[in-house]
Each structure stands twice: as structure tokens, then as C-alpha cells.
Amino acid sequence: MAEKILKATHQGKLSLGDLAIDCYVLEGERRVIHKRGMARALGMKSAGGNVFTRTLQRKGLGSEIPQILAEKIENPIVFKPLSGDPGHGYEADILIDICDAIIEARNKGKLSPSQEFLAIQAESIIRSVAKVGIAALVDEATGYQAERERDALHKLLSVYLSEERLKWAKMFPDEFYKQIYRLRGWPFPTGSTKRTPYVGKITNKIVYEKLPPGVLEKLKKLNPRVPETRRRRWKYTQFLSEDIGQPDLRDHLLQVIALMRAAPNWSTFTRLLNRAIPTPGEQLTLDIDKVAEDEDGM
Fold this sequence. Notes:
Layout: E1 6-16, E2 19-26, E3 30-34, H1 35-41, H2 51-57, H3 67-74, E4 77-80, E5 87-91, H4 92-107, H5 116-128, H6 131-142, H7 144-160, H8 174-184, H9 198-206, H10 215-222, E6 225-226, E7 231-232, H11 245-262, H12 266-276
Parallel strand pairs: 1-4
Antiparallel strand pairs: 1-2, 2-3, 3-5, 4-5, 6-7
Helix pairs in contact: 4-5, 4-6, 6-7, 8-11, 11-12
């Protein structure tokens, strides 16, 4: 049976010291370094034929190559780059495993004088990358990192949000709003559900922008403004999934209300909130001189 040739979805150059070696992301998210690239990284002048394999099988060094690793070396992955002829390569992590074996062989005095260069190169590679990070380096070199992040965000939103509007249920307790008014020094409108429009902006800042990245943007798409009224028809909470999104919002509100209770004023509360639940890349600031745009989406 013919060996399946995997196709590359991304490719690029992986920097290892002064070298730039070919690397790829294949179908199934397999990070691969070309066989020639691994040979060059280890200081081998040629990777033609079976030079790479034979070098690692030589007396002394070969005894420190575990059987499982030896089998992988003997059976490279056949793949099709984005352009050009099919090539042979290995899972990126194998490079680190090979470096470990070379260094171990050197430490046990098993390398011949002609193999000492391998240990020098192996130590250089180990200093450059760690096994836990080489996949990330390949992703960055091939441009796959951005797609991986988009895919992770898509998976998160697919379980966090509901594409179909759910039946409305009250999720923001009255105390949440009472604490906002207290901390802002505003009189609370008893006997009325009408609130100052700034509350919507505040709610976005201290609640929705603190949820996982991308949630608020997706909520705005699921619940767009009605052109005639410029207001949102539904509440954001109706688009949070019942099993993940809504429970997470409830937990967040409990934390926020607890911080509100502990704060004597708004500035203290914002400091506590930023410390306890930071928004990535920014500090909590509220410009209450501008009318909120999202007070109808809470």
C-alpha cells in the first residue's frame, strides 16, 4: 500500500541561531522540519541519501538513541510542500529528542572526535528552543499562529455563545445597579426601572469587556441595532449559552458585586477590579462625559 503523502497547509523558515531551516505545518496540525533542515541544524554538511540516518546510527551515538526515536528517524514523514516536489521530514519535537541523545552520548564519552561537532550544535539548539516551545516557533515561522488563534477563538465562541436567541431571564441582580449608583454618588431611581444611559457603558466596561476576548464583538453581531431606533432588540444575555456562557457571566457578576461592596467609592472599585480581573492590554477607564451607546444591550 502506497504511503499517504500529507499536504502542507503552511510553511516558512525557522530561525535556529544563524541558520534558517525549512519548516511546515501539515494536515492534522503536524509541525514538521525538513530532513535536510535537521541535518543542517546539527552541522551535517550533507543530508543526501541516508547521511542523516547513518550519522545517528554510528557506534557510540547510536546506543543512546532510544528505540522509539530510532524508528521515527528511520521512517520520515513524506509530505507535499506548498510548492515543489514531495519532501521528507520529521515532527519538530524529534529535533530536541535527538539533541538530548547526542548530549547524553557526549557526557558518557561515547562520541568519537569526529562526532564532537554534533554535541556543540545540539547544545546550541537546546539553548535556542525548549521542547515545549518548538511547535510555537514553527507556527510563528509558517504564519500558522494567526490561524491557530482564530480557530481557538472560534471554538471558544461556539460553546460560550448561542447562535439562537434564548428566552429572556433576569441575570443582573438589582444590587449590581444599586452598587453602581452608590459608588458613582448618584441617587438610585426607586420605583422605576429606567436608569441613566451611562449605566450601559459602565456595564460593558466592568462586565462584558472582562469576558473572554471576542465575546462582546460577537454579541454585537448576534444582536445588532435596529436601524429605525438605533437600539438593540434583545439583551446580550439571551445569546450566552446556557451551559457555559450564562454560568460564567453569573460567576463574574458575583465577583464584581463583592468588589463593589468592599469599595467606598468608584476609583477604589476600579483599582480593585483591575487588580482582580484585568482587561488584557488596558486599564479600566470610564469617560462618563460621553453618552453610552450600548445601554440597551445589557
